[in-house]
Design goal:
Blueprint lengths: L5 E3 L3 H5 L14 E9 L9 E5 L5 E7 L6 H12 L8 H20 L9 E9 L2 E7 L3 E6 L2 E4 L6 H7 L5 H5 L20 E6 L5 E5 L1 H4 L4 H10 L3 H14 L6 E9 L2
Parallel strand pairs: 1-3
Antiparallel strand pairs: 2-11, 3-4, 4-5, 5-6, 6-9, 7-8, 7-10, 10-11
Helix pairs in contact: 2-3, 7-8
Amino acid sequence: MIRHSIHTFGRAEAMNTPITVVPGAASALPVAVGAGLTNRGRVREKNEDSILTDPSGTLWAVADGMGGYGNGDVASDIVIDCLAKIPDGVEPGPALVARLKEANSLVLERQRAPGMGRMGSTVVAVLIARAVAHVAWAGDSRAYLLRGGHLRPLTRDHSVVQEMVDRGELSPEQAESHPDSHMVTRAVGGSEELEVDLVSVPLAVGDRLLLCSDGLTRCVYEQTVETLLRDATGPEDACQKLLREALDSGAPDNVSAIAVLIREG
């Protein structure tokens, strides 16, 4: 299994801070534990996805470099590097947007370097603060929430076919096989001004989050994703099963998945 550009983000300040236990204090907030895997797939010559995992359980991200532009791996690395600089104690939504806008500027700047040319990356990122998941995204990398055994999307694709579905020109089933299904309408490095969507979701013990590139969702049905994520023994097992399913289904694109479990503090 080939792994590429996996950034593990440690938060030394938070981990080294002494903890004071107050008798009779309210129960601790739920905590997040997770894992991530990425693979070039069965067809692509290189992996242009990058992922960010955080041992402290706070920040997770998948960036999918756009291979059609060239240098997609450079763009996705820039996105992850910018997100990894988010400090503790910030307002989650504004911090995510600010770092992604910074990444957009850096990718545009890199495009102007000799021999580089156009490049871009989609992204989905989750910052968990006080048992709330703050999700930011641009493009068709996705976030899902599994609760009570049922999977639901937290993001909505910024893509040509999604706009056609919204206008009633295509059914969701037709969109999956449409020849323009790979065309996104937003991406880091795609335009001078990046528009980022945000959603916040309170988390409960037992919830499972999934972040993934479109290399997973294009070849694994959501019902199968739901079953594999629900039946997995933990985040590592979930990522391995999802990746194996994608590879067994042909994996024509790079595949990345991050699974996060919310458990008692």
